[in-house]
Every structure is written in C-alpha cells, then in structure tokens.
Write a structure and sequence with these properties.
The chain is mainly α. The protein has a single domain, classed as Mitochondrial carrier domain (Mitochondrial carrier fold, Alpha/alpha barrel), CATH 1.50.40. The protein is globular and about 60 Å long. This is Solute carrier family 25 member 48. It is a multi-pass membrane protein. It comes from Trichechus manatus latirostris. Keywords: Membrane, Mitochondrion, Mitochondrion inner membrane, Repeat, Transmembrane, Transmembrane helix, Transport.
C-alpha cells in the first residue's frame, strides 16, 4: 500500500480530466444562467453563446481546470480514500477484507474531502468562472454601469488564466482568490457527502455478491446517479457561489454570502436559487460517470500492473 498515494494521483488525474472535458460545455451554460446576466432559459443561453462565440464559447475557461485537475482531483479522492481507510483501521477492520462500509465512516471522510476541496479548488473555480463570464452582454443586462465600465465590458477583462490570476491578486489581494469560499464550503461539504455516499452504496447494490468488484457499467451508472443527486441538491449554494465568484469581473455588487442571498431573493424571488438545477443534474450524470469510470478503471489497471510485477 506504500504506492497508494501515487496510484490515487494518477487515477484522479485521468478521471478528473475526463470529467472536465465531458462536463465543461454544460458547466459554462450553468454558470452564465446562475449569474443572472442577460440570459433567459437554458436553450436561449445555449443559442446565444453559440451565435456570439461559436462552439468554442462553451469551452471558455477550460484550460485552467484541465491543467490543475490532476492535483485537485487526486487530493480529493486521496483524502476521501485515506480517511476512510484510516477510520476502518482505527476500528480494527481491514478495508480489503471487508467490502462493507459504515455510514459514519463515509460521512466523515466525505466532509473532510469537501473541506480540502475548497482550499484547493476555490481559486481554480474562481478563475474558471471569471473566464467563462467575461463576455457577458452587459448592455442588454441593464446594469446601469458607468460609461467606463460599459466600455471595459466590451473587451475581455482577462487574456487567460495566468493574467486572470495576476489581475485578481493585484486588485483584490491573495484573499481575492477565495472569493465565494464560504458559499463553496456550504456547497461542497454536504455536496461531497451526497456524492461519495450514494456512489458507494449504489455500486454495492448494483454489483452482484458473486462478483469480485464492480463492472464498468455499474461504476458508470452509480457514478452518474451520484453526480446527478449531488449537483441537483447543491444547486442553491452553487447559485450563490457562482454569483459571488462572477462578481467583480467589471463591477462588484455583493458584500458576502448573506448579502448575495438577500439581494438575489429580493430581486428574483425564491426560484433564483434553483436556476440551473436542470443543467446541474443533467451535467452531473455524464461528468461524474466519466470521473468515477476513469478513476476506477485506471486504478484497477495500475494495481494490476503492480500485482504482476510485484507479487
């Protein structure tokens, strides 16, 4: 088990890269819908993005999360797996000898993974969203900006992920990279609980007892359903997080999580917190299915090679 961390890193990179490629186009649509600027519904958003920016508009901001997903995804999956194993060993159980999982172990491991994910993923998510949002149609949004802000809004605010990061640090300090971290924490801690726990139990439920391990089909189905459940239920705080992180591209409107919730509710009602829930649930299925399938298959392949070379 000494090479477990390296195995997890490699498997996490493959699974994470697959999920980014599969899920990013709908993630762009989700982010722009939730920010509440210039778009009506999902179909009108897709048509507008395609008409104005072609198919490449759906992949805006993808390079940074794709490049950084190796570290992020490996750490999240590594923390979850290692925490779960630690709890199992602490209770005098060997994880390899018993495929059963206790809910308390899964719950605690998921919560720790959620906290760690915010520390690593906050800046990545912020830069991704800033790049996705910088072509918003501010004139149509009727934001009553000053002439200078409108003029700036006609040009891209950032030239790429590195320039975006440098601009944020220069204008907002290092703390600016964690804008929306509170909302992200409130989203990811319960979100990862509803991500890993359904996956583990659905996987065990689908897989026959006679089988040594889950089939690719079982992994795909369990991972997809877990992703749809997690992203669907996380939508309200995801809306708040997206608005806080998109805030500041051209103008700042929100003072914090509570102010964002208050302003959003006052202007658009309760339904605003469920904006993008369909896109989230639909996007969550293939994205998470690709994530878990890539992770599990690559992990099995790596461990099989280790078994052959070092019996």
């Amino acid at each position: 088990m000494g090479s477990f961390q390296l195995e997890d890193f490699a498997a996490g990179w493959i699974g994470g890269a697959a999920s980014v490629i599969v899920g990013h186009p709908l993630d762009t649509v989700k982010t722009r819908l939730q920010a509440g600027v210039g778009y009506g519904n999902t179909l009108s958003c897709i048509r507008m993005v395609y008409r104005r920016e072609s198919v490449f508009g759906f992949f805006k901001g993808m390079s940074f999360p794709l490049a950084s997903i190796a570290v992020y995804n490996a750490v999240v999956f590594g923390v979850f797996s290692n925490m779960q194993r630690f709890l199992s060993q602490h209770r005098c159980r060997e994880l390899e000898a018993s495929p059963s999982h206790t809910l308390s172990d899964l719950l605690l491991a998921s919560m720790v993974a959620g906290v760690v994910s915010v520390g690593l993923g906050g800046p990545v998510d912020l830069i991704k969203i800033r790049l996705q949002m910088q072509t918003q149609p501010f004139r149509e949004a009727n934001l009553h900006l000053k002439p200078r802000a409108v003029a700036l809004g006609e040009q891209p605010a950032y030239h790429g992920p590195v320039h975006c990061m440098a601009t944020i640090v220069r204008s907002e300090g290092l703390g600016g990279l964690y804008r929306g971290a509170g909302a992200m924490l409130l989203r990811d801690v319960p979100g990862y609980c509803l991500y890993f726990i359904p996956y583990v139990f659905l996987n065990e439920w689908i897989t026959p007892e006679a089988c040594a391990g889950p089939s690719p089909c079982a992994v795909w189905l369990a991972g997809g359903m877990a992703g749809a459940i997690s992203w669907g239920t996380a939508t309200p705080m995801d809306v708040v997080k997206s608005r806080l992180q998109a805030d500041g591209v051209y103008v700042s409107k929100y003072k914090g999580v509570l102010d964002c919730i208050s302003q959003s509710y006052r202007k658009e009602g309760l339904k605003v917190f469920f904006r993008g829930i369909t896109v989230n649930a639909v996007r969550g299925f293939p994205m998470s299915a690709a994530m878990f399938l890539g992770y599990e298959l690559s992990l099995q392949a790596i461990r099989r090679d280790h078994t052959v070379t070092d019996p």
